[in-house]
Design goal:
The chain is an alpha/beta fold and about 350 residues long. It has 13 helices and 14 strands. The protein folds into 2 domains: about 190 residues, Rossmann fold, CATH 3.40.50.970; about 130 residues, Rossmann fold (3-Layer(aba) Sandwich), CATH 3.40.50.920. The N terminus is likely disordered. It is an enzyme of class 1 (oxidoreductase).
Length: about 350
Amino acid sequence: MTATQQRNPASGGGETRTINLIQAVTEALHEELERDERVVLFGEDVGARGGVFMATAGLQATFGKHRVFDTPLSEASIVGAAVGMAVRGLRPVAEIQFADYMGPGFDQIISQAAKIRYRSGGQFTAPMVIRTPSGGGVKGGHHHSQSPEAYYTHTPGLKVVMPSTPYDAKGLLKAAIRGEDPVIYFEPKRLYRASKGEVPVHDFTVKLGEAAIRREGSDLSLIGYGGVMPDLEKAADALGAEGVSVEVIDLRSLVPWDKDRVLTSVQKTGRAVLVSEAPRIGNFMGEVAYTIQEQAFDYLTAPVGQVAGFDTPYPYVQDKVYLPGPNRIVRACVQALNY
């Protein structure tokens, strides 16, 4: 069992089995469709085909075309329909085929879904989930590999999630569907089948806003989320071989994010390196860095480091150059350790 799996919450003694991240998403959707008749699932090709990544395979056959159905190629219509359904009492789960395609639905997300509770004085809410594959690592180029989470973390009224393990993918998605707020649920596509782990058979959820400590350490806090987490583990292994004790934290949830766990870790280690694959300018990790220097400045023994994607459109074939990767992460950690 890997360090990541060991840090997953216990199953309570119940039965578990090993699945990958895409299977965890499918199971979560199946169980929520079965549990609550208000849950409906829709998007481009999610019905008979099961989605471009097969996350919804078999769901239309099980629950029918009135619960799981295809839509036109119009992200604005998909999001707008989800808002209307949510306001009228349903629990819509809308899939946007790639995070890169969310642009046409942006106004519906930030002007309607995020604000309906506030503009109505609490008379209406939009309990809805927008699922979307995100990030690079599959040589999809600049229209199929972007990491646009910062747009949505900047929008009050939205919750934003990005898991990295099957356990979290299932538990966070089930919690998002059951919640009372609109949730943007990013799925790191390069981990769909690469990330495998033990997941309980029994019903469970993972609370939004709680980070996971993947491994404990005392010399440096290495913090990330989503698709970069395996690279953080590899970097921690490399540093550990040189005698460096690295604490690895997976944020899991960006809005809300677990400030207390991050600050407690940094206060213990005195050093922090933050990792994500989104472009550096306007990166969500800039908010984490600011919070650390604002609330834990006296504990720092080195400047907060950040490893991110470059401020360029995502390249078609240079994934290994663009993505942070273990080598770039290790270099940033060494710089912090030698400061």
